[in-house]
Amino acid sequence: MNVERFEYRFQDCYVLADETTLTVGNALLEQRFDVRDGALRPVSVRNVALGDEWLRQEEACAPLFRLPGMPDSPARRAFLSAEADDDLGTAEAHLRVRLDVAYRDSALLVRTTWRLYPGRPFAQQEVSVKRRSPEDEAASLDGFAIDVPERESRGDPDPTERQDYIYSLPLRELHCRYEAVELRDVTDRTNTLVRLAQGRLFPAGRDSLDGNLLFLEKALTPSGLLVVKEGPTPAGRLGANAPDFAFEGRRLIVQGSGLDAEHLAAPDDDFLAAYGSAIGVYDGTETGRSDVLDAYHRGIRIIRPELDFFLMSNTWGDRSRDGRVSEPFLLAELEAAARLGVTHVQVDDGWQAGTTVNSANAAAEGGGRWSGYHAAGSDFWRPHPERLPNGLTPIASRAAELGIQLGLWFSPDSDDDFRHWEKDADILLSLHRTYGVRHFKIDGVMLRSKRGERNVLRLMRKVVAESGNGVYLNLDTTAQVRLGYFGRTQYGGIFLENRYTDWSNYYPHWTLRNLWMLSKYVPARKLQMEFLNVRRNQDRYGDDPLAPDACGPLYGFAAALFSNPLAWMELSGLEQRDADALSRLVRLVAPYRDRILSGRVLPIGDEPSGAGWTGLQAAAGDSEGCVLVFRERNLEPSRRLKLWGHGNARLRFERVAGIADANALLENGVPYDAAPDEEGRYRFELPAPLTFALYTYRVEP
Questions:
Q1: What GO biological process, any one, is recorded here (predicted)?
Q2: Is there a single domain that holds both residue 522 and residue 649?
Q3: Structural domain harbouring 373
Q4: What is the pLDDT of residues 258-276, one digit of tens each?
């Protein structure tokens, strides 16, 4: 259907188009593109609330994106469609816009998809490609057809032009500072998970930076631009492994699609997506950065406390691996979990009949597998016939009686780019329907191409769709090439790290540091952070004053409290005194869990080092929240700490729980009012080194 003008609206979101211009936006952010010759060229990115424009006008502006193997010929036709969507019920309802461009002398179809969220100051963009067969080319395409005029002067292609980028903007303002945030995974060998790089625009400058996030802020105007690369960390990038962000003078480029020319060479039955991107606008302040990122995360995944908040146990942290998995052992773990107040018990690798490379019995069974599970036979993912002779039914039934959710470990088959993804999805769905399992740890993923990534996403989407959005996928990010933090991980959360006292690589302040550093950029509710049985392997730490045993089990639990805590241990192996103390603490803080994780968790105080004053704040709106304060191994009896979002407000604090020393639990304290000093800092006092306290607070009239 040919139209002179296309318009579609959903709440405050809209798309407007004619034969030369496409505009997408909402009440807060608007983008406009020149669509002549089919190569989208950015014309405007405007902060509507501030009336602030980010782009300069360029007649010879570079295309918005360029993928390896894209044709140089102009477009033949474009097809535009729009509809409301909610990403299988996981996201807020939003407007999805698609522009399909067919090229002359090419069977390639290039699709650009935008997602715009009502009342949210950001928009997502994704480019995907499909090479059609001759039969497909003859078929009509869906959407409103737009005849695409050529530009008056295309010029010859520049052989030095970048051939692999997913977003590009010609910036108007020279006087800007920028900061790239590189998040790191593969945590089995990484323990500093955030790195920052800063700079300022320079007319002849050339700068390249790794990262998933880029903040760009004007020096002369209170205005900021957030750019998100929705892909893996640098450790997981596919395709040409270029840095994620680049500046060429005042041109900003998001590099690396994950695709290569080979992807575009053969006909395909479906679109293959490049890494995505998103932009957001804010007021140029640090609080504004937090606001726009919070809006982004809340837009792409609706918070569902019954699915998203949990205190889980997993026995793997005591390093018996699958050696103790059996029906009696798991039933004992369930009883211990119920006494402790654990909400979910997850059975890791070993519940299934097949043997993996991580099994305690791997050597005796031919080394085990880490892919090729379906080649091993149809019984691989059935309950182990000797360890669980009655299957999982007794375990699931007892869990239900105790009010505990059963979780399971699963490893999709990486062979041949996850070609068995449908079988794997059916296995997860069967476990969900048969045993009521809603939380699956997804491990062993090894991505080798964008086709493999597409199949992993197909698996996840099938499970979410056919479970009625009733399954939470906990993505292990400890090793291999995986999705990272921003690579389409919206269908659950992140199992962040393996830490063991057996290898002396667990310290409570290291766990706290990783949560503290990530919480600015990744919602704490999306992270699963560990606490261990600190009495194990004390000899491996010698006289280290920050050893887990020196901190005690309560301090270790508190370090993970503002995430989804993971009891990375055999609960039935806890000393009784520790089990009793943890049970009391868990029950004291349980009434505040929803408030903490529904809020915005942000770091306060010093970066955790084992020797400072540090903590986390969970802001529940503008007037109340929770604060968790740690006095590490520090001699100062008190410290003034700046909180987020309260300026000079007088606050009323009330202690919920804390410790007087490693083993002495403190319960509710007397409420008190506190005014900040001239720098907006509030005074906190704790009784001894290696202690903590959890407070609620509210603004006093």
A1: carbohydrate metabolic process
A2: no
A3: 310-596
A4: 998 887 777 788 999 999 9
